[in-house]
Amino acid sequence: MTDMLAGKVAVITGASRGIGRGLAIGFAAQGARVVCAARSQHKLEQTVRHIEAAGGEAIAVRCDVSKAADLQNLYEQTRAHCGPADIVIANAGGNFTRDSVEDSDIDDWEATLRVNLLGVYYTCKYAIADLKRQGGHIIVIGSGMGHREGGSGSAYSVSKAGAWMLVRALASELRPHGICVNELIPGLVNTDILSAGALPDESPLTLEWFKQPADVVPLALFLATQPRTGPTGQSFSLMRRDSQ
Ligand code: NAP
Q1: pTM of the predicted model, to two decimals?
Q2: Which of 167, 162, 155 is nearest to 236 (CA)?
């Protein structure tokens, strides 16, 4: 344990597995009190037990990011058990259809936007009042698919492109309050979201670094520890330059 984030409260959505779990463990190892949010209470508790076994502090709060009321409850629980949030990582995400626009199922298309775009909106919106108290950081986990077309289906790309614009809009709104808002693009990370064989052999993405969730932690820590005069409204990527 080191203390880069001592005294800080970090709320991380999608912390039950994958990248969010890796970020929760990495932030707790730097002394943050971590609020782990997702729908699966059982898996959240596994993340919390892992953190506690390593000497860190964390709580689990069940939360569906597509439901605004769940986010209001998340920050109420955060204030009650840990104090107001200093750092928010909007990480929860999913992809429910890779079909073309023409063939896509409307419910799946909408579900992708509800989690990846509205979920990020709710996660940020209800954090702002607390973050305004003494400044802070919002990190939105984005995707290269939000910056260029192709690969993961239209719904995912549109949802991530929307979240990237939300980062920039929020950065302008919140700059006077010392709140930095940035996007972190993890690139390919070995998690459940990448079903086996999802990438075609000829895909330029097969040249991409293939990372583990822990590999995303250093860049997230860098962003979360910048001063209030630090970067905001920017996108930071762990992808290779030629696969952007
Ligand atoms: P993952 O292993 O499938 O994890 C997704 C996380 O999001 C889980 O903790 C899941 O928890 C949570 N989640 C999904 N729907 C939710 C909802 N409605 N409410 C609350 N939590 C929800 O995927 P991952 O790779 O770690 O993805 C994390 C983020 O990275 C996503 O935003 C994804 O788009 C982005 N990303 C990933 C990659 C990659 O290569 N892995 C690349 C670019 C971007 P529950 O199921 O328990 O709710």
Answers
A1: 0.96
A2: 167
